[in-house]
Design goal:
- This protein has two domains: about 130 residues, Diaminopimelate Epimerase, Chain A, domain 1 (Roll), CATH 3.10.310.10; about 160 residues, Diaminopimelate Epimerase, Chain A, domain 1 (Roll).
- It contains five helices and 18 strands.
- Strand 11, helix 4 and strand 12 form a beta-alpha-beta unit.
- It is globular and about 50 Å long.
- The two termini are about 30 Å apart.
- The model has no long low-confidence stretch (mean pLDDT about 95).
Length: about 325
């Protein structure tokens, strides 16, 4: 078996776009295909994401047939641990690739993601802006007991995936100076604690109802100077970008706390210093009982290479491996 890919990165966060060679799906809807991918094709995810073809920080996007009538493309997102429901940095990469490859006659790309339809616009300089699915504050000032820091206070918000947010200095960390290992340890432990303390439900689709990761912030609001946030997801994976779905969730939190109004643009930076913009552009229909907003996220992705990956049947490490513990 040979899988063909286009390799890109958004602010340092990789996107391995699978464009050819993947076996056909039997599922009708995109969520059906996501479940099928977990059940039938997870060995291919591991083989592409993990060593020797990838690494623990790899991220992928698998193009599949859309079932949404308005969609140009549909995608399943993958990482070292499994299959996510939304990814902003990969959306930015996919939109640029779709227009510049001629797959979609731009500048608008309508991308069906597991969380819903995302509409992106690609500028001539490669900058991409996309409007994500309705984002909302899910739980404010919730307490999660941890073994290392005792009770920690977090906000939980949804921007296509659910995240737990807290300022890094509340647990003695500095996002500019603390070792990344300490930040990763904190993100993993807090995500586990919040998953136990805060039941996650999505009123529209049970497959979306899980905590995806932890986002540690520097307390800034991104109005005058960029606010740093670092996202730890999929256990211990570090997002090198500012996390597009996390920016959507963070803007929903700012609106809920009256720290931003509709139309206010904010800037957020990642651990690499890369920037995304976030703007709550309008109100959205309520998601269950919760007020929601549509957030526009902006960023740029770059091409790095194209590849053809072999999966030889006699290779004992064909399905990938990880040395992380």
């Amino acid at each position: 078996m040979i899988l063909s890919t286009v390799e890109m990165h958004t602010g340092g966060e990789p996107t391995r776009i699978v464009v050819d060679g993947w076996p056909r799906f039997a599922g009708r809807t995109l969520l059906d295909k996501r479940r099928e991918a977990k059940e039938r094709f997870d060995h291919l995810r591991r083989g592409l994401m993990l060593e020797p073809r990838g690494h623990d920080g790899m991220y992928g996007a698998l193009l599949v047939e859309p079932d949404h009538s308005d969609a140009d493309l549909a995608v399943l997102f993958m990482h070292n641990e499994g299959w996510s429901t939304m990814c902003g940095h990969a959306t930015i990469a996919l939109a640029r690739w779709a227009v510049e490859s001629g797959r979609v006659k731009g500048p608008t790309v309508r991308l069906q993601c597991p969380c819903g339809l995302v509409v992106a616009s690609v500028a001539a300089d490669g900058w991409v802006r996309f409007e994500s699915v309705p984002s909302f504050a899910y739980a404010l000032d919730r307490i999660a007991p941890t073994a290392t820091w005792g009770p920690v206070t977090v906000d939980v918000a949804y921007g296509g995936a659910f995240y737990a947010f807290l300022p890094a200095d509340t647990i003695g960390l500095d996002l500019h100076r603390s070792p990344m290992r300490a930040i990763v340890d904190a993100g993993e432990e807090i995500a586990r604690a919040v998953s136990k303390a805060v039941p996650i439900e999505h009123p529209d689709e049970p497959d979306l109802a899980f905590l995806y990761g932890t986002i540690l912030t520097d307390r800034g609001d991104g109005a005058e100077t960029p606010s740093r946030n670092v996202c730890i997801f999929a256990g211990r994976q570090i997002d090198r970008s500012p996390t597009g779905s996390g920016v959507s969730a963070r803007m929903a939190l700012q609106v809920a706390r009256r720290q931003a109004r509709l139309g206010d643009q904010r800037r957020f930076e990642s651990c690499t210093g890369s920037l995304f913009t976030g703007t709550a552009v309008r109100e959205a229909p309520r998601v269950g009982p919760r007020k929601a907003v549509i957030v526009e996220v902006g960023g740029v992705a770059h091409f790095t290479s194209e590849a053809r990956f072999r999966f030889d049947p006699d290779d004992p490490l064909r399905d990938g491996f990880s040395l992380s513990t």
